[in-house]
TrEMBL record:
<dbReference type="Pfam" id="PF02590">
    <property type="entry name" value="SPOUT_MTase"/>
</dbReference>
<dbReference type="GO" id="GO:0005737">
    <property type="term" value="C:cytoplasm"/>
</dbReference>
<keyword id="KW-0808">Transferase</keyword>
<keyword id="KW-0963">Cytoplasm</keyword>
<dbReference type="InterPro" id="IPR003742">
    <property type="entry name" value="RlmH-like"/>
</dbReference>
<dbReference type="GO" id="GO:0070038">
    <property type="term" value="F:rRNA (pseudouridine-N3-)-methyltransferase activity"/>
</dbReference>
<comment type="function">
    <text>Specifically methylates the pseudouridine at position 1915 (m3Psi1915) in 23S rRNA.</text>
</comment>
<keyword id="KW-0489">Methyltransferase</keyword>
<comment type="similarity">
    <text>Belongs to the RNA methyltransferase RlmH family.</text>
</comment>
<keyword id="KW-0698">rRNA processing</keyword>
<feature type="binding site">
    <location>
        <position position="105"/>
    </location>
    <ligand>
        <name>S-adenosyl-L-methionine</name>
    </ligand>
</feature>
<dbReference type="InterPro" id="IPR029028">
    <property type="entry name" value="Alpha/beta_knot_MTases"/>
</dbReference>
<protein>
    <recommendedName>
        <fullName>Ribosomal RNA large subunit methyltransferase H</fullName>
        <ecNumber>2.1.1.177</ecNumber>
    </recommendedName>
</protein>
<keyword id="KW-0949">S-adenosyl-L-methionine</keyword>
<dbReference type="InterPro" id="IPR029026">
    <property type="entry name" value="tRNA_m1G_MTases_N"/>
</dbReference>
<comment type="subunit">
    <text>Homodimer.</text>
</comment>
<feature type="binding site">
    <location>
        <begin position="124"/>
        <end position="129"/>
    </location>
    <ligand>
        <name>S-adenosyl-L-methionine</name>
    </ligand>
</feature>
Amino acid sequence: MTITLLTIGKTDSSALQNLIENYTARLKHYVRFEMVVIPDIKKTKNISENQQKEKEGEVLLKQLQPADFFVLFDEKGKQFTSVGFADLLQKHMNSGLKNLVFAIGGPYGFSAAVQKRANAKISLSKMTFSHQMVRLFVVEQLYRGFTILRNEPYHHE
């Protein structure tokens, strides 16, 4: 299985980027993983938030194949414990799924078209986090999930 993380815009903080790269390198020991950074939409001063979401959504959807299982990180999604998230990863691997694609939206979230295409939604918390910080949380939780599945000593209950 390949896991892809689609994100909108580059990470501005070098400290965050270093941590993301660290967990990405660790994660690659367990699964084929890639992060695809979709460039920020240019000239957003004269368009509405909804128009920006639509434009980001068009680019995001072009990254998908019909057979991809597409999961949004969205505050209205289902919440998991780390062990529950690991179980979800195992379920997808056991199903023979080839591509598991996660997406983190831009600052205004996802367009209606992206929401419609999604197979599932996951919430990291009832709180709202910056879309840049969520990247770190996601790659860390993916790494944690695989260490849980391998009974490695990273996660403590």
